[in-house]
Design goal:
By secondary structure, the chain is of the alpha+beta class. The chain folds into 3 domains: 4-180, Sandwich (Jelly Rolls); 183-230; 235-293, Homeodomain-like (Arc Repressor Mutant, subunit A), CATH 1.10.10. Helices cover 49% and strands 20% of the residues.
């Protein structure tokens, strides 16, 4: 359980920082604030590992093939890179969706668990949800307050960010975050292959090859990969390609044909079909809609 007074103080401070709907960057290590007043607006992205503190509203997120639903008073940890489709409910102009995102820092995790922390070798799903507590809330509160004294950020913020990681590692979902960070653990081996896929997403892959890289039997590797990511390796690579193609069309002004071959597809027809299946629209229409909505 947590103190309603502390929780509301965090919530009100964020509300005072962001008056309109949107995503807001801060000066603190990738920390972002989110505010949204329109329910059912679907957002799709490929997320790096993150910590999200939920302050208002209810979020529905599809990570890979699994749906997670979480509301105010929860925190969410994604310990691996994930394709995410999400929308928020139970919100309005008067009571908007509100959350804080903080990137997961693996160096901090390794530093903490190197100090005689017990680590299990169990394979965990890369997404976990838990109830927030006062210690985590107070740390976020101090982090938000630092935005009012920017000269203090470089010195004090790293200590608070480390404390947040520490509190989460000591909490109910800490083992999953520990396991994914340890080189050689079951979850850690899956993280190795994820990093490989991110760096080589344009190449054809074979399950036997990936399994051999981490000294696993193909059947075991495939099972653990699904446990961590909720997807098969081939499904994961496909979504890497499609999200990168979307980024190229949005940010680099690629057309669909150029983006298709740039990310490793050999067939424009297959690319268009799989793009529409993931994003709900063919590439040109999807990109035009995103630009117009922005």
């Amino acid at each position: 359980m947590f103190s309603e007074d502390i929780f509301n103080e965090v919530k009100n401070k964020v509300l005072n920082k962001i008056a309109l709907s949107g995503q807001y960057d801060t000066e603190i290590f990738g920390m972002q604030f989110f505010r949204e007043s329109k329910p059912d607006k679907i957002n799709r992205c490929f997320h790096s590992p993150f910590i999200i503190l939920m302050l208002n509203g209810e979020k529905h997120s599809i990570f890979g093939s699994e749906e997670f639903i979480y509301g105010a008073g929860k925190y969410v940890v994604a310990s691996v890179d994930y394709p995410v489709s999400s929308y928020v409910t139970n919100i309005s102009e008067e009571s908007p969706y509100l959350s804080i995102l903080l990137p997961v820092n693996n160096n901090i995790i390794l530093d903490i668990i190197s100090k005689n922390e017990e680590v299990t070798d169990k394979c965990f799903c890369g997404i976990s949800v838990a109830d927030v507590d006062d210690n985590i809330l107070k740390a976020f509160l101090r982090l938000i307050d630092l935005l009012d004294t920017p000269d203090d950020i470089d010195i004090i913020a790293p200590m608070i960010v480390k404390e947040i990681h520490y509190r989460i590692l000591k909490g109910p979902i800490g083992n999953s975050l520990k396991a994914i960070s340890i080189y050689g653990s079951k979850s850690g081996k899956i993280m190795q292959t994820i990093q490989y896929l991110k760096a080589n997403y344009t190449e054809s892959i074979k399950i036997d090859q990936l399994a051999s890289m981490v000294n696993m039997a193909p059947s075991t590797f495939n099972r653990y990969f699904r446990t961590v990511t909720t997807l098969s390796p081939l499904q994961y690579q496909k979504q890497l390609r499609l999200y990168e193609a979307q980024r190229l069309m949005l940010m680099e002004d690629f057309n669909a044909t150029t983006a298709c071959f740039e990310v490793g597809y050999n067939s424009l027809h297959q690319f268009n079909r799989e793009y529409k299946k993931l994003f709900g629209e063919p590439p040109y229409k999807n990109i035009k809609k995103i630009i117009f909505d922005a």
